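ping. complex inputs:
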Amino acid sequence: MTLTIVVLALTLLAATWAVMTGGLIRAVLGLAATSILLTILMFMLGAGLAAVFELSVCAGLITVVFISSISMTQIAAKSDSAKWARGHLRHYWPLPLILVATGAIVAFFCLKLPIELPPPAESVDAKGMLWESRQTDLLGQALALFAGVFGVIVLFKEKEK
Amino acid sequence: MPPMDALVVMKTYWIFIVPLAVAGIYCLVATRNFIRVLIGLEIMTKAVTLLIVVSGYASGRLALAQALVVTLIVVEVVVISVAAGIVQGIFHLNDSLDIRKSRNMKG
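pong. complex structure:
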């Protein structure tokens, strides 16, 4: 349990750093660190399949998408970050206080909440659940990917001369 | 009844998940940079992902939770990719990533 609390605290710390840090690249690296720590938490909860997806897609692919976006808009990013660095902490100094206060409030109410968990369902592995019980989800995923690919093609289409 | 320990684990996670979501919301509200808006959105999605997994763990339906998380991750990737493309388009239009300079998008 102590290890879980340490990893959870590190996850929150990495996310806070991603929000508060001055440079965009550092913010994206903070986000990647958050994803990696989330992967560790998922493994600790026994959600191996979701953890692998989180690690490869969120910590890998999305970081690459962010970094290529930043490098393609580098001129603006540089000038914005120079301006941003000056007044950056002015915008974000209340964040750690807000996070601590939120955590304290949730902890206070969590202890009082009368939660009853349902009885555990019959055990099915994640692969069986995804391919046998949630087939429509897979169809939805395929359609979402198609929509995404089509959207990117439309956005990057060259204008006709 | 599920073991008491699952409830304790879930409540412990909640104490960190809610501030994680709040950090994402704060990033969305306070920033003026388009890429940081996406970072805020990502942080909020991470909080939701963790909430689904821990709920699945506590209720003994981890397989269902994992199936939902995989769907969520796919949708997340699509949203971020398209949003990054839109940010590129806005940058080419305005030569800036500043939200305040994108008033010409209205209407």
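The radius of gyration of chain A is 21 Å.
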